[in-house]
Amino acid sequence: MTISLTINDTKRVVDADPAKPLLWALREDLKLPGTKFGCGAGLCGACTVLLDGQAVRSCQTPIGEAAGHAITTIEHVKTLPQGKLVVDAWIALDVPQCGYCQAGQIMSATSLLTQTPKPSAEEIDSAMSGNICRCSTYLRIRAAIRKAAGLSEAA
Amino acid sequence: MNASTNLNRRSFLAASLVAGGAALSFDARIALAAEPADGAAVVLNAFIRIAADNSVTIGAKNPEIGQGIRTMLPMLIAEELDVDWAQVRIEQTDANDKIYGPQGAGGSRATPVNWLPMRQAGAAARAMLLAAAGKSWGVDPASLTTASGMVVHKASKRSAPYSSFAKEAAAVPAPDLATVPLKPASAFRIIGTPVPGVDTPGITAGKPLFGIDIDLPGMLHAALEISPVFGAIIGSVDDKAARAVKGVIAIVPIHSGGTAPAGSHDAVAVVADSWWTADQARQKLVVNWDNGDKASHSTEGYAKAAAQFLKGAAQTELLRTGDADGALKGAAKVVHADYDYPFLAHATLEPQNCTALYTADGKLEFWAPSQSPGSGRKQAAAMLGISPDAITIHMTRIGGGFGRRLMNDYMVQVAQIAKALPGRPVKLLYTRADDIRHDYYRPAGWHQLSAGLDAGGSLVALKDHFVTFGANGEPVRAAEMEPTEFPAQIVPNVHFGVSYMPTFLTTGWLRAPTSNAMAFVFQSFLDEVAEAAGLDLPEFLRRTLGPARALPQVDRDPPFHTGRARAVIDKVCSKAGWQARRSTDKTGKGRGFGFYFSHAGYFAEVVDITMGEGGSIHIDKVWVAGDIGSQVINPLNALHQVQGSVIEGIGQAMLGQKIDVVAGAVEQSNFHDFPLLRIDAAPPEIVMEFVPSEFPPTGLGEPALPPVIPALANAIYAASGQRLRSLPLKPV
Question: Residue B609, CB half-sphere, CA atoms under 13 Å: how many?
Fold first, then answer.
């Protein structure tokens, strides 16, 4: 069946099972492969997108439930003020190693700074603990979030 | 880059080089271009293209798995070509070792193997440009200099961009690579400076860089039901329900191949117009697997068998020096301990995947996230019965390697699926459970150790009975032990014996293979021996190392230099303010030390922890000192590699990571039961100090990992008195 979605400020129509996860609709139907598949179970955060500004796991979000909500993906995150700050900090500190998890990390960090503009070290770790980085870029993720928040890069 | 199609008709120059002390026979095969590519840019050699606007395109030839090689190898070329990094564009080459030389990501080998050839490729191109400029200006090329991609003639105050001589330069005979002048280190302008990853902007913009992102017109998607029991074959398949799912196009029985013999580890592929559909349909397959005797294996059974082995004598002898038994009998003090570690999966965050297109003319094209595409080419050719030359391999960025993608099972599998659907590209993708349950695991191992000290506290005897996996006196992949295991080459009386038991599990190399386990075993045990000698581990190691000297080289292993070991031990102790005494107050605060030599790198590490209720551990700080030779090529990425290695080692040790096998199949399936370290467990700070030495640069993907594991175990002992001899560590 056809489902209308609002993706990156654009109305998009997907002809698929409403149970299809948003992750796969983004990657396969909408040709937005920046959102990554890591675990399929909401455990790693690689598929994180913003749904009405909140970080959600797109592998656990059926498109039937995503309809009617504003969805933002990594491809569009720089249009958000916090998203731009986060991406710029990510580039300035050269955060990625393999880079596979980083779209999800950036989306979670953007959601954090939208809700908590000056997060404490504990708030950063807590908000980011759903996103696994197998290369362990965590020290730079912390520093980049602080930089994006206008805080000192050191904890 | 276009070079793969444009250059294979041309002549090649082979350069045989000796890198460092070890004889690394390396075939650089720098292709010499004689004609412009596409009319727009001039190809100077297989790695370098210069455009009319003087921008320089450099080919990155190795698989990028997060180790930073796509940035680092082009840095070497750009340095000697003498261009500004800002004018450089990077292109991934195809996999073609006939043009580009070795193209693998493993063993921290890319730095020592490429340190000279990549610089020579840049220097050769620069020499050709100078020859062309000299001819054009009617001056001696020796009177010319270069800077920032410009040729300069000081005497006549002339200068011109490389691009103005590129076409003529391409026709200049290439200089002898072995004698082409290279810059002295003092003249480096790119090497040794912090260069951010070339893909960082693309990654942060969500660009489709990875294997999983490949999207081709008419592409089909495959999900794979692989026999849960290792080595099982298909008994029967009922695919009626799966075929009935809308969007399903084909069901293809395949033989896993890879390194397992064909027909011994089967799978059934479901091919559909979307991967999600294929995976849904896959769940409707009913496969009866013929497990043979393979389902009798379990990790519990292996542990019981290992305990039996340790009650008897070792099957074979790995090393016998002097008389270890006699020396133990005569020793003033003797220490005995048993150590063990589990199977581990790699769990790269990008699940295994590969895309292939088979055409009716018998040609095969891959888009492969492989650490070892050359091996994949051979394996796929053998499985399909086609010539390796009929295979083209495009290399994608890779979402984590860690050794998993040195194995090419996914290439062999997708090749078989593609052959069943000629003319249609097919992308195969594993689920997370597929990925964890069908890995090439770091093999488990068991060690029974004894050490003898003389009255002066010197180590006079060392004995190990190592129980591992193998058959007919040969270990399975990554289950070996080296006779050079530190400190076996120094101790006067040593006996290393090995016993092998068979396994059906596929095993393989995990980042710092063998070392990631051996460092834990030997550096933890030596901490025990040091305590018996009344010393802390750094001081015990210093005394054991003795005077600075290179120990004899064994096989092709890099020789161990005691002075380099001592220098990193001293450096990390000085940085961390190590008190030259053993911490014995057991206050919950603990500090541990570990040293290890692997992949030609010397690393000493100190870990500070605070233990809490129920054995909880907080890592307070980690100090690292390392010697990887005379030059750290990209200090920014070097720090990243060290941080990543240290945190990965901590994760392996303290999160409960292990792979269990029950009735021939792996139990774990996802990150809930195979946990990876998350940000809230990462240490607040990792201090890194490089100790430069006179030796050629070596790699950094691996050697910083092994010592952190024993350093952590030794810190737990210092904090609590708990000597943990089994990984994963389970403090209480």
Answer: 30
